[in-house]
User: What shape does this take?
Amino acid sequence: MYSHSELKELVDKAIINLSFNTEAESLVDPIKYVLSIGGKRIRPVLALMACNLFNDKIDEAIMPAVGLEVFHNFTLVHDDIMDQAPLRRNLPTVHSKWDLNQAVLSGDVMAFIANECFLQTPLGCLQKVFRIYNTTATEVCVGQQFDIDFEKKTVVPEGDYLRMIELKTAVLLAASARIGAVIGGADEKDSELMYEFGRNLGLAFQIQDDYLDTYGDIKVFGKTTGGDIGANKKTFLLVKALEIASPDQFNQIHELIGKTETDPVEKVKMMTGLYDQLGIKKLTEALADDYIENAFKMLEQVSVKRERKAELEAIAGSLKGRNK
Amino acid sequence: MYSHSELKELVDKAIINLSFNTEAESLVDPIKYVLSIGGKRIRPVLALMACNLFNDKIDEAIMPAVGLEVFHNFTLVHDDIMDQAPLRRNLPTVHSKWDLNQAVLSGDVMAFIANECFLQTPLGCLQKVFRIYNTTATEVCVGQQFDIDFEKKTVVPEGDYLRMIELKTAVLLAASARIGAVIGGADEKDSELMYEFGRNLGLAFQIQDDYLDTYGDIKVFGKTTGGDIGANKKTFLLVKALEIASPDQFNQIHELIGKTETDPVEKVKMMTGLYDQLGIKKLTEALADDYIENAFKMLEQVSVKRERKAELEAIAGSLKGRNK
Assistant: This one.
């Protein structure tokens, strides 16, 4: 069995060794930039862990795992265009460091690099794995479209919000786990359980992200809290608050959203006050915990000895009470 | 053997029957719009003809052929963003009919729809066909980047220009012919010949496009000529003219390019006058003819009876002296 850090190292090495069509340097530079920024490589690591759950040999899963990471970074490059984001992980985004054209085009090329990675899946499961990836890739785009659509709406039902984060974030973690399992030789039932494991983790993770932006400890969380409230971003907190607010509270929240000249610190304080009245903190914690609990249940049912599940349990466990 | 019109009908039908993830209508609408505009479907038709050259059964080539058309339309949607083009085929482009975000994202989804089409390639040649497609897709992006880069340069060497149109236009026609041949059961040598057939046709076609924009008969060509000259677009004509111009002629061309207030009709007249001095018309016609001639030579060498080549010969023949 491979440890988390061993798997991350394998992924990092494979990403460094990716080969590119280098005829147009101006296209490759943004791609190398984006892929070198790094991060936790959670999707490929999850895929490799899922493969390793069923199989001691994981070599054949490495390139498809890298494909998941390249695809994820492709979505970040294009999402940053759409969100007009100047920074990601405190570094300039591609469209601000280069320009819109290079961001669109180098993003496109990343989608084809991801394809190239998936084409290295063992022939016996190539079509199956590629289909899981491709369906998921489309769903992630649909999730991004919902996210854009929602920002224009006054009220978004909680169910719609959860479906949006499921598509935008959770299905790719789900697909990562399933793809790893399929390459590892898991049967249909276990592959499906792994998909559900990843999906529940993804939902928990995104809800915690929303939570930490408001309730995170700045010193631990690493960035200023309250950014979402300041930007009137539709988060689970806001969606839930509007859903359960009394008419009076509903109006107060909406007035606050409409205020553009309020001191940001004051705005965060007032919105948090309203959230407190509605018990949003506890409701959000409870929902994330439910999803983590579900993930554990799924993993438990996978027909593999308990000791092989240690690394995956550790990942799910690390989300419990996550504070950064 | 299938006729050109039968193949186009098969392609049109398969495109109409494409299924989409319809959860986000706002994403699917632009895709349906783009794919319904139609056009000659030259890439899928070429793929099916290439398949039919080697095989009476072409069913298995239809979906990969459609994948080529979907990919081509994906590049148009994203290219129109980069070129800030308001119209294509006299209809609003996606980013002008909807917005930038929907154009980026619906384009992205089209890349995954193309993947889905290629995943329906028979298993025996799935990996091979998908690799041809994927390598080509990257090359097309590189071609677009060159095109953007060239517009910022004063002088582009003829060789660089030809490589740009090879990447941006010709390799996709080449890949279409090769993919059809591979699915039809052609051996490596014949597949390569078909690739070269398509590549030469693509080069001829693009050079003729440049030619017709200046020398086409408005009544036949269907659009106003001189648009490229007015927009100072780097065409083969301009690139070649700058390459062979005397220092004096070079300066005259550059002065003309720098003039923004000249009457457009006058500008076209003056530039065409300079082209005439340099014999650009004949040089361009001759180059296109060379490529068409090369295409015929490639097709001739394919190890299949002459009578099976009739439809492909007709396509190559229709480019000779093309006036629209």
Remarks:
- The domain at 4-319 of chain B is CATH 1.10.600.10 (Farnesyl Diphosphate Synthase).
